[in-house]
Amino acid sequence: MIEYMEEMDKLGMIIMEMLAHGLGLADDFFSKNFEEKEATIFRISRDILLVLLQRRL
Known about the structure:
Blueprint: H1 2-22, H2 40-56
């Protein structure tokens, strides 16, 4: 189970880098601040929302 969770963390980092790249941001824009494993999805959602809101203004 731990091995699965570690692989999912790695996959999550790859997805965050791809998402940042797709938004025209530095590839590590989201992943650089995710040393902690708690509440990751909430931080990502908040960061994405902030970027999208800034682009609309």
